[in-house]
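Key idea: predict the complex, not the pieces.
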Amino acid sequence: MKRRSTAPADKFTARVLTAARRIPPGRVATYGDVAAMAGRPRAARAVGNIMRTCGRADVPCHRVIAAGGRIGGYGGRETFKRALLAAEGLIVSGGRVRDFDRVRWPQRKR
DNA sequence: TAATTGACTTCGC
DNA sequence: GGCGAAGCCAATT
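Result:
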């Protein structure tokens, strides 16, 4: 066994990508949620960076949005992201996802 | 290695 | 409802 106390960033990144991949079509998750799934509920910012650098088609980064159902960003192409979400069957209005609590994954109540 | 940046979140005014 | 500041984390330079 070896260092387990350290927080392997590589692992965290892999976890984030995996979590994003686990998002079923027609659903969306927030950066904070994905970060929480990866094991760092406060790494929402890091998740954003990871998504930006994900460079993987396996990861539907467009399904990951900001908190409150906001589109967040997409390399300056949030409009394109909105279109992708709409193609997933989601309804985006005013830069926010309609029925966000219904399409959110996982559905959790606060 | 250190410092800066950035697709975030939340509270306060 | 809009604006600002603080906190947290990873990637990049």
